[in-house]
Amino acid sequence: MSSIPVPHSAHSDDRGEWRKSKAEERNLLLSTFGSENLHWGNIDWAVVGWMFLMHAGALVAIVGLFTPYRSALFNWQSFAVMLFLHWFTCSFGVTMTLHRYLSHRSMKLRTPAKYVGLMAATLAGEGTPLHWSAVHRIHHQKADQPGDPHSPSEGNWWSHILWTFTGRDSRLRPVMYQHFVPDLVKDKSMWFFEKAFTPVLFGSALALYLIGGWPMFLWGMCVRLVFAYHSTWFVNSVTHVWGYRTYDTGDLSRNLWWVAILAYGEGWHNNHHAYPRLARAGHKWWEIDPTWMLISGLRLIGQAYDVDDRLPEDLPVTKAGDDTLKQLRSQAGNPPVPPLEAV
Ligand SMILES: [Zn+2]
Ligand SMILES: [Zn+2]
Known about the structure:
Elements: H1 12-18, H2 22-31, H3 45-64, H4 70-73, H5 76-103, E1 108-109, H6 113-123, H7 129-141, H8 156-160, H9 172-180, H10 188-236, H11 257-262, H12 269-274, H13 290-300, E2 304-305, H14 324-330
Antiparallel strand pairs: 1-2
One zinc ion (ZN) is lined by residues 99, 103-104, 136, 140, 272, 276.
């Protein structure tokens, strides 16, 4: 169910009628991101159900540690798998591949790092690579303004988790991709992972259960996902509320050390809003950025190249409202970003 004014039928005639102009299409899409769209008639029950199950599993796993069922629900192998998969999916997958590689094109990746990264991102369960990147580019372009998918100016809980519960007409998805990730849709592998997202996610849950029973499923899937979800959501919620500002970006973004620890360097969020295309988010020596370390390691072995490794001296600050697609191309000293299929 959706409250947006689109035709009930998906026939092409109706779509033609619906799509008056590119600007109207874009405005219609952006209007679906406000918190007023979340109400009982417009809830994405698949997301709500998934989040409920993962949180329930994580709760059972952690409470189970203090019960007589501990040995049936926990072992150290499962804990080690949880730690490894957390780093692999959250850092290799989300913070490096989805965020710095796809959303901001801060570097290029060679095979196999690119495909390993896309698989890690899919296993992170935060939506498909195209969808994640499109939503994130909208966030940068509309940061803390109407159209921002998750600004705390519409409520702290909204920016943290509630925004993910909002229903959206599936016919708006191609509109979102055309407007915000036109460079990424040219890459066939993006469409493979678009289709593979749900089977891979459910398949990984089944595989963990078959490999290590309930402890492996509860810790390797539920606890790991819930921990990673909240770590990355803190970037949307907490680092637009608490912390210090180094740059005047015109939005609410802040730098916060403990979010940087939990989210592999993404807590240096004011730095990132000021210079979204730079591959490193930590700009001072003590702003430790594990995702930058990962990118540097991949560059060392030749898997990452054309890394935008500048520090921001003499570069203009990006302001809230600047066009994100132009940001990809226009920062001083950068050559135009080539089409992704050439990467
Ligand atoms: Zn932000
Ligand atoms: Zn970003």
